[in-house]
Write a structure and sequence with these properties.
CATH architecture: 3-Layer(aba) Sandwich
Helix content: 25-40%
Radius of gyration: 17 Å
Structural class: alpha/beta
CATH class: Alpha Beta
Distance between the termini: 26 Å
Strand order of the largest sheet: 2-1-5-6-7-8-9-10
Number of domains: 1
Shape: globular
CATH topology: UDP-N-acetylmuramoyl-L-alanine:D-glutamate ligase
Strand content: 15-25%
Length: about 250
């Protein structure tokens, strides 16, 4: 029997399955990776409305992690929606203690697509030392600004691509092309595709970061994983009805 490739998502639960850990697991499965999950928030939302985050306390997050890590040492981990820097720090501490060489992706969720805001800009200094312990961070343009990447780089606090890889997503930009920019130790890479107008799909950031993680777990280089994930998202944006995508 072929050995199963596994990955772990630590994220919020979205009952519509458009975003969060359900979307993460579905995306990983698309690429043949078995996704397991830890819940950080029991949200009240659908694809059009976000009511409340329903944060899970750290003790319950830790208990979920402890139980899963009893069976497997996860080498590929995605972190999504977290309440604050302190919770992210605790999650990273736990994963690094159990699996020091794990490839960890953080998709910083600053706000829901329905408009609800989570992370606060005043916390940006708290995130810098945490991000230096990650392998990849995948902000959109608003999150890039909110977390102060440009300011931190100008101060010399971080060096994009050297302290950790960073993928700046271009889906929320303007123009005919959607361009994602990746900084790694090997240099800068750009991934461009025609912008798909008018779709407004729910949970695209969750799916993109999960697709990247799945392909890294399958042995792809990070630039190749980002390229494959972007191609997957281009197809995903054309599926389904309304703000929920379909199955690929």
């Amino acid at each position: 029997m072929e050995k199963m490739t596994r990955a772990l998502t630590i994220a919020g639960f979205d009952g519509s399955a458009g975003a969060g850990l359900v979307a993460d697991v579905m995306t990983m499965a698309h690429f043949g990776v078995y996704g397991e999950a830890v819940c950080t928030a029991l949200t009240e939302q659908n694809e059009n409305e976000f009511v409340a985050p329903g944060w899970v306390i750290w003790d319950r997050i830790e208990a979920q992690l402890e139980t899963l890590f009893k069976s497997y040492t996860f080498k590929f981990v995605k972190i999504g929606m977290v309440e604050k820097a302190k919770i992210l720090q605790k999650i990273v501490d736990f994963v690094r203690a159990k699996s020091p060489d794990a490839f960890i992706v953080w998709d910083p969720v600053a706000s829901a697509s329905a408009g609800f805001h989570f992370l606060r800009a005043v916390e940006q200094d708290d995130f810098v030392p945490i991000m230096k312990r990650l392998d990849l961070v995948t902000p959109n343009q608003d999150e890039f600004a909110m977390l102060g990447f440009g300011l931190s780089a100008s101060r010399g606090e971080i060096e994009l691509g050297k302290d950790f890889a960073l993928l700046l997503k271009g889906g929320h930009g303007r123009g005919k092309e959607s361009v994602d920019t990746l900084w790694t130790k090997e240099g800068q890479f750009k991934f461009s595709s025609p912008r798909v107008p008018g779709t407004g799909k729910h949970g695209t950031g969750c799916r993109l970061s999960s697709a990247i993680l799945a392909n890294v777990a399958l042995g792809k280089s990070l630039p190749d994983a980002c390229r494959i994930a972007k191609d997957y998202m281009d197809k995903f944006l054309l599926t389904g009805e309304g703000r929920l995508g379909g199955l690929l």
